[in-house]
Write a structure and sequence with these properties.
Elements: H1 3-7, H2 25-43, E1 55-60, H3 66-77, E2 81-86, H4 98-108, E3 111-115, H5 119-128, E4 133-135, H6 143-157, E5 164-168, H7 173-185, E6 188-192, H8 201-214, E7 218-221, H9 224-228, E8 233-236, H10 248-254, H11 262-265, E9 273-276, H12 288-291, H13 298-317
Parallel strand pairs: 1-2, 1-3, 3-4, 5-6, 5-8, 6-7, 8-9
Bound molecules: phosphoric acid mono(formamide)ester and norvaline (NVA).
Keywords: Cytoplasm, Transferase
EC number: 2.1.3.3
Domain Aspartate/ornithine carbamoyltransferase Asp/Orn-binding: 161-315
């Protein structure tokens, strides 16, 4: 059986996406293939509207450019309608409880995406909602971004298994989802973070457990040089994520040796990809030369948010 035939029986209808560990390797591969197929259709001008007449609510407790626009545009292209629900403009911001919000919204909507601080909010929403719930970023995880990221790597490198991804910087939501996704897909992930900013120990343990199945190696180190050695991909993210802005100064000091610059990148393979989920701070976590250089694929990643989020909505809500 070819991989495409194997993936044909995958059915994700009605499922939530809280983090990629909810999904099997095969299910993630299915979503990546579907994203690539939907991208092809879009580029060819083919109209594909499996979600005609459906609605998705997008709850935002934090700012967003890519996530909001990719879900809104993606829903429109699939024939669905998206509602932007800023937390402060709905009763959730005035103390209406998550379980009531989830049950009420489920009576109107066919899917809910939520961007929030505490991951427990996503879990609670999913527990009480009767429609699929998608994590559009929590303090713990950012699976939507990572689907687009592995799609981007697959498109540029033609494969995923056996590649090495080096993540330099804060052991945050991005680091976590890249590790879980890498472990599922057989991508070796090396994370280099300063003391006190390592990825969550539970996530590292879970990733290593998953990696046993695929042969991926999950490494956590202090040394950016060790992490980038022979890497196919160098990935970084801001030093102060949303909600941590007041720690900016302390973090600038803690992360000063963790900038991805031309010197550090020399340790990677010459055809390495530079990746960043964006928004970026040039001159902090990455030098201008690297982020705007020839190895950078940041705008392919940003574009793929659209295709990956369409695949997710089509698969879960279709
Ligand atoms: N990468 C990402 O999620 O971007 P936004 O915060 O703009 O949605
Ligand atoms: N780690 C960043 C990602 C932004 C897309 C944050 O949580 O702010």
């Amino acid at each position: 059986m070819t991989q495409t035939e194997q993936l044909q029986h995958v059915n994700l209808k009605g499922r939530d996406l809280l983090e990629l560990d909810d999904y099997s390797t095969e299910e993630i591969q299915y979503l990546l293939d579907l994203a690539i197929e939907l991208k092809r259709k879009q580029k060819n001008g083919e109209v594909y509207q499996p979600l005609k007449g459906k609605t998705i609510g997008l709850i935002f407790e934090k700012s967003s450019t890519r996530t909001r626009v990719s879900f809104e545009v993606g829903a429109f292209q699939l024939g669905a309608h998206a509602l932007f629900l800023s937390k402060n403009d709905i009763q959730l911001g005035r103390g209406e409880i998550i379980s009531d919000t989830a049950q009420v919204l489920s009576r109107y909507l066919d899917g809910i995406m939520i961007r929030t601080f505490g991951h427990n909010n996503v879990v609670d929403l999913a527990k009480y909602a009767t429609v699929p719930v998608i994590n559009g970023l929590s303090d713990l995880a950012h699976p939507c971004q990572v689907l687009a990221d592995y799609q981007t790597i697959l498109e540029h490198k033609g494969k995923l298994k056996g590649l090495k991804l080096a993540y330099i910087g804060d052991g945050n939501n991005m680091a976590h989802s890249l590790m879980i996704g890498g472990a599922k897909l057989g991508v070796h992930v090396s994370v280099a973070s300063p003391e006190g900013y390592e990825p969550d120990a539970e996530v590292v343990k879970a990733s290593r457990e998953i990696a046993k199945e695929t042969g991926a190696q999950i490494v956590v180190t202090r040394s950016p040089q060790e992490a980038v050695k022979d890497a196919d991909v160098i990935y970084t993210d801001v030093w102060a994520s949303m909600g941590f802005e007041e720690e900016q100064k302390i973090r600038e000091a803690a992360f000063k040796d963790y900038q991805v610059d031309e010197e550090l990148a020399k340790g990677a393979k010459s055809d390495y990809l530079f990746m960043h989920c964006l928004p970026a701070h040039r001159g902090e976590e990455v030098s201008e030369g690297v982020i705007d250089g020839k190895n950078s694929v940041i705008f392919d990643q940003a574009e793929n948010r659209l295709h990956a989020q369409k695949a997710l909505m089509a698969a879960l809500m279709g």
